[in-house]
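Here is a complete protein record:
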Amino acid sequence: MATRKPQSPPIRFAELRKRCKAASLSEQELRDYFQPDDENSKPFAPALKLNTELVELGRARPSPRTIAKLYAEATLAATPAPDLKARRKRVAEARRAPSSARARLKLLAEGDSWFNLPLWYPPTSLDFLAADFDVRSIAMWGDELEAMVAAKQYRQPLRSGQFRHFLFSGGGNDVLGSIPTYVKRRRPGDTDPAHAPDYVKPTFSQKIGQMIGLYRTLAADVRDATDRRTVLYVHGYANAIPLKDQKYLGRPLAELGFDPVQHELLCKAVVAHMVGMFNTALQSFAQSTAQVVYVDLRPAMRVGDWHKDEIHPARRGSQNISRVFAAAVGANTPTV
């Protein structure tokens, strides 16, 4: 396969930083100056690197986090839309006519890569929600549940009183990225999907309990930062499908004796059981906590709705998920 030839001119790192902060890079320049770093990518944390053939670093040695933040600034990640052009158009319109932007229902979103991804991935559900809602996103791929709750970056926007709906996505890495830690080795000859619960270690239940503790802290933060009318929406991801030789689900399962092709049903069942445990715990938490709404995304994700990396929705999947979130917000919005 021929390598795509960059079309953008070389640029010094200092100039790149300025243009990222100004969000003045074209989509072509973004694709040329930034590259996916597959070697260092982790579940829910796509890594980026700079194309050093075009970006003159000099003495600069930017960290992966710095590169990710520059990219987020350049793509106006705080105002998502299905493509870069639409993102910038929406920001420009909001600056020219802030009253029209305020007229739409405002959503605050914090989360991981299910809410924010680099441009070479499919659009996320937030990108589609931005067509009908005034979305402010502080989500960032790679952010994990514990770190988000510790940082509490959502408190300041919530205190503004502008947001009655707060969408939160967290814990994916703890569930879909935890197979090596919480799944036992497959017993020789076993292919029965009914045995899936037997392969999930008891310590995973303890992990789920710790995660729900963080969600309780999150809910308390929302109550403290608002007048208790803001609704917190939580979700438990969906039943991802392990693929042979793929790094996030397929390979970890293969190392434990599960072949995603030969033992397809068992592999799917193991993942679905872990996702189900998280969803059940989240649903119970929401039912026992005021102003918290649990959103089940599993029915929205069918076989063809997954991206090739196993753990993120494809475009159609994101559209389906956006409809589920929109319906939940609508059901919790006063009509008067």
Summary: The first helix runs from residue 13 to 21. The first strand starts at residue 11 and ends at 12.
